Amino acid sequence: MTQCEDVLSRRRELVQAREVIERAHKRVLSTKSRSGAAATVFFGLGTIAVLAALSWAVVTRTFPARYAASAVLAAEFAETAATPEALESWQEFHEKLLLDPQLMSRAAERLAQRGFVELSQPAALKLKLEQDMTWSVPEPGRISFELRGLGRESTSRALDSYLTSLVAQSSSLRQRRSESSTTVIAEPVRAGVEPIEDPRLAYAGIGLGGGVVVCLTLWFCIWRRMVKTKSAFENSTAVDHLLEDARWVDPIQKIIESPGDGSGSKAA
């Protein structure tokens, strides 16, 4: 009986130890879950930051903002002072020259040399100027130009190429003019720092939203698979514990129910 009591005592100790281990395991799981939640938040914020940067980089290359570039042409009179009639004649001549076919051919050739393939044809250049270029006369003898286009540097270079061709064309036709002025670029081409139209933020937001949806979908699929695996493992462990408890037999009960011991008692 002493051995049986010792076995039962040890079993109770094992049960108590198991309960202590389970409580410690629960505390570890609680701490781990808090750390996992913090890591999940940090990982989520990092993922959103990376997706935002990638979306902005892609959108900046794919959908450049629209800028406005401006410059001023002016008439210079070297020998005599400019008369109102001379200034008016200069202005009329250059207004007619702005979309002249010969100028379009010269400017398109210059633009093609500078890499503007879409404006390398006179018809395409004329359409671009009619749609996106405006001009005004702030004072006699000066014409102000403004060109709107995609990209700050690109728009500036396009307007500079056109005005350079315009000045060259005006110089080559100087003999046909009634006045003897020289056409110069009085104010060089400058583009505004801020865009006049900027769809990049909206497109970047769409790209960021799409990236977040894709990442959440992938994360949900992985999480669901992990939950299924964990659930199957826990169920298997619980079944093993139940089978182990079912296989365990109380030693005293075993001695009482033993046939050999029963016959020995009768003989005594």
Written overview of the protein:
- This protein is 69% helix and 14% strand.
- The protein has 268 residues and is α+β, with helices and mostly antiparallel strands.
- The chain has two domains: 2-61 and 202-259, no CATH class; 66-191, Alpha-Beta Plaits (2-Layer Sandwich), CATH 3.30.70.
- It has a four-stranded antiparallel beta sheet with strand order 2-3-1-4.
- A hairpin with a 2-residue loop joins strand 2 and strand 3 (142-150).
- Helix 1 packs antiparallel against helix 6, helix 3 packs across helix 4 and helix 3 (101-113) packs across helix 5 (152-172).
- It starts with a helix and ends with a helix.
- 15% of the residues are buried.
- Residues 261-268 have low confidence and may be disordered.
* Mean pLDDT over all positions: 80
User: What portion of residues is helical?
Assistant: 55-70%
Give the name of the CATH superfamily of the largest domain: EIF_2_alpha
How would you sum up the global shape? rod-shaped
* Helix vs. strand class: alpha+beta
Largest sheet: 4 strands, antiparallel
Tell me the CATH topology of the largest domain: Alpha-Beta Plaits
- Rg over CA atoms: 44 Å
CATH class of the largest domain: Alpha Beta
**Order of H and E elements:** HEHHHEEHEHHH
The percentage of residues in β strands lies in: 5-15%
> What is the rounded distance between the termini?
18 Å
Number of helices: 8
CATH architectural group of the largest domain: 2-Layer Sandwich
Low-confidence stretches: 261-268
Strand order of the largest sheet: 2-3-1-4
How many strands appear in the DSSP assignment?
Answer: 4
